[in-house]
């Protein structure tokens, strides 16, 4: 009994010590301090083009500092186009740790911007990635939305293939008929609208990439058209849905046994400014996260057929509707982001 008692005391001491060490070493990540408006900043005025919003009442007063919410983090997620080098997928996410809420918002790759990087001038946000990498993309998103980006994650598309295969495939409802052939890329995408089970990594990648459908008349002549036209949905919504499906599979009990495989895949295919301690913290907090009730998704609303300085098919944001998404899903501040804090370029 004495031996049993001593053993129990030792085990208890180890557990308590481990718990104390964990809480001392795994701390919430530090984030960028909010900007401090200068005293010579322009006083807030009401914008006549936004009749539903009185900026003179909502804009922070001159010299007033912004305050951040407790343990509220923002993330920029990006994947490059394998052909052009532009960003093929851009999303911004937020994680409200105390309330266990995650928001995932798609930034259309053709989002209208007007920026210069070095000698390059570009008008669509996907060009930021090609000209200046993740740093330029991060700067462009921050300027456009008026909020800081705490962390970034860039993913080689091969990672999607490997992760999906590692978890044994995913189930997903394909929202449209997909029929696209590009022989020069050895790319052939054919899926009927409906529920598909056990999709492989390569199949998930094909569904995520599909933008156009093609009609071939012979070995040389063909036409292409927007695969999502008239469907009531869009490619970004499909990509978000696939991300959620993969995340659910990753968080499932059956996937936990493959943690070593995931670590290896991520090390080879993911670049991020998250430190090992940051990852450990978020992993420890995500244990309590519930996908079905804690996750919300959206896309910045606007028009995708805008021409700006000769550049066609730009996505021009609906500023008021987009501002609402920023404040309800992504805003890390304790006060609302206002339109004068953002820079959503308009064609007219």
From TrEMBL:
Amino acid composition bias (Acidic residues), ranges on this chain: 46-55
Segments crossing the lipid bilayer: 7-25
Pfam families documented for this protein: LytR_cpsA_psr
InterPro entries (UniProt xref): LytR/CpsA/Psr_CW_biosynth (IPR050922), LytR_CpsA_psr (IPR004474)
Keywords from the UniProt entry: Membrane, Transmembrane, Transmembrane helix
Region named Disordered: 32-61
Top-level taxon: Bacteria
Family as reported in the entry's similarity comment: Belongs to the LytR/CpsA/Psr (LCP) family.
Stored NCBIfam families: lytR_cpsA_psr (TIGR00350)
Protein name: LCP family protein
Domain Cell envelope-related transcriptional attenuator: 86-214
